[in-house]
Amino acid sequence: MSKYVPLISSGLAGPLGVLHLPRLWQKASLEALGKLDPDYPGIGKGYDSMVLAALHLNETDVRAFIKTKPSYPQFEHWITQQPGVKLDKATIYKNNAAILGYIHTDDTRRHILEANGIADDGSVSPAAVDLNNLDDWGSFHKEVLS
Asked: Do residue 132 and residue 83 come from a single domain?
């Protein structure tokens, strides 16, 4: 069975406007099917937990729903039906600002750049979203194209 590197960026949002939510859906869906690359968590402690906390979603409930194999629009619709969910503009704005404003540690940045053959000379955006994209593309290249 093939294992997949998630390639939806944390910098993308679906119709609800919540950054990282499409990536969370992709990773959790792949994990539920046993198809997620083992280097990635289905629902991890970083952006995944940030989004769940911001929207007031329960991780166990999300995992259970994901096992029903929803499409992305079905996932968003399900979210809108959850008791206590927070989808107001201020909550979404704060979540999105937190996603875009997150900066990796120096060690994480150096590791990602080194793994991709890029000098850590300040010429690459330090934003975690951008570095994570680079990390995903590097993993995809290594696992699929090489």
From this structure: no
Amino acid at 141: H
User: What backbone torsions phi and psi does residue 65 show, to the nearest 5 degrees?
Assistant: -70, -40
Clarify whether residues 72 and 119 are in a common domain. no
Average of per-residue pLDDT values in the chain: 96
Interval 77-104: pLDDT, tens: 999 999 999 999 999 999 999 999 999 9
Range of the domain at 137: 103-146
Q: Are 25 and 96 in contact (CB under 8 A)?
A: no
Q: How many angstroms separate the CA atoms of 78 and 102, rounded?
A: 28
| Confidence category of residue 41, pLDDT binned at 50, 70, 90 | very high
